[in-house]
Amino acid sequence: MVKEKIRELASRYAADMIKIRRHLHENPELSEKEFQTAEFIKAKLDEWGVSYVSGVGGNGIVAEIRGKNPAKNLVALRADMDALPIIEQNDVEYKSCNPGVMHACGHDVHMTCLLGAVRILKELENEIEGTYRLIFQPSEEKFPGGAKAMIEDGVLENPKPAAIFGQHVLPTLEAGKVGMKAGKYMASTDEVYLTVKGKGGHAATPDMNIDTVLIASQIIVALQQVVSRFAPPGIPTVLSFGRFIAEGRTNIIPDIVKMDGTFRTFSEEWRAKAHRKITEIAQGIAESMGGNCEVFIDRGYPFLVNNDELTAKTRELAIQYLGRENVVELDQRMTAEDFAYYSHIIPACFYRLGVKDPSWKEVRNLHTSTFDADESSIEVGMGLMAWIAVNNG
After folding, report:
1. pLDDT in tens, 31-68
2. What's the domain range around 289?
């Protein structure tokens, strides 16, 4: 039985894959700089006799495994490769050796699970049908996203896959469990950059200045209307600003104030309208107070949509592999993922792999200096990916 063979192979290779995960965690590389990461992955594919092409969409690698009836179906599996500019605080033997860079979003686990699935599929290639496209993608953490670049380089062509699957760690979910959500799952994301210009001067002579700090403050408050008064009630929306730079002093009003934020939602029509509203409000307030505001909105990833039928099938496959008690339903998230690009082209399912160690007192969350994963999740993740793949091949 294929399922039992996958289980056995996942168990057999688990220790090796944990070593791979630790190597990747020790040697993180930032977006567009995944050179040694790519070389390491290629070396493993060479070792296992898996064919591939490299340099796709930058440092991306696309491997292929063909079953006994390769024309039956083409299935794609994807993992991301890049790390984040974070100083790791974990006291572990596999702590990052690259100062200021850390796999704080679990991409080390993603790559490891996909490599594990590759190894399993290669072992079973004479027993399974279909063709398997294994996508190791760079630059998920940086606009415009490695997915977009790989798509432009033809990763979804010649021929187009019938489906694509992505697996992402979830630190709030215990290892051994996975989570699914059909339909719209993750938000689109845009970066908002505002530059307020006025006339700086002595803080004691406000009548002689055009106060950029006051203008910027009014803009920040007024922009909350975009969510509270203009957003359709049924469409989740977030507009948040995390950077406000006014380089004056206690008695100096600066000429320029800069504000950086993020806009996220689940509708392309509303997204475009919101961009216009942000621009109108910011510029209108600045002009009414004697200054001006330059608005630049860097359009990022679209919202991620999980195909209903494919996700229902994936949920049942996960239940078969892990047991019903280990497959949970997820809520929508306002976080974003460039896997969304794939989901707007072909049927996609992006699901979550639990990595929480039950002995940990606190959640070691994504994008933090203490992120880590219960490594028992690797055997689960690689086996499940292989199981899902062979049942769609």
Report:
1. 999 999 999 999 999 999 999 999 999 999 999 999 99
2. 190-299
Domain count, the chain: 2
CATH of the domain at 152: 3.40.630.10
Select from 109, 112, 158, 104 the least CA-distant residue to 133.
158
pLDDT per position as a tens digit, 143-160: 999 999 999 999 999 999
Tell whether 76 and 107 lie within a shared domain. Answer: yes
Q: Give yes or no: 82 in active site.
A: yes
44, 167: one domain: yes
Query: Which of 283, 299, 315 is the last residue before a domain boundary?
Result: 299
Q: Are residues 372 and 259 in the same domain?
A: no
Q: Could you say which of 82, 141, 174, 337 is catalytic?
A: 82
Q: Which residues contact 103 (CB under 8 A, 6 or more apart)?
A: 24, 25, 28, 83, 84, 96, 371
Instruction: Check if the beta carbon of residue 106 is closer than 8 Å to that of residue 368.
Output: no
- Give residue 92's pLDDT: 97
Q: Within this chain, do residues 284 and 135 fall inside the same structural domain, yes or no?
A: no
pLDDT above 90 (res 393): no
Q: Which of 29, 80, 123, 140 is catalytic?
A: 140
Query: Which residue, 255, 270, 299, sits at the end of a domain?
Result: 299
Query: Are 369 and 97 spatial neighbours (Cβ–Cβ below 8 Å)?
Result: no
Q: Is 140 a catalytic residue?
A: yes
Q: Hey, what are 218's tokens?
A: 């009014």
Residues 118, 262 within the same domain:
no
Residue from 298, 361, 389, 384 nearest 10 by CA = 384
Residue 113 is predicted with a pLDDT of: 98
Report the predicted TM-score, pTM, of the whole model to 2 decimal places: 0.95
- What tokens appear for 261 in the block? 């934020």
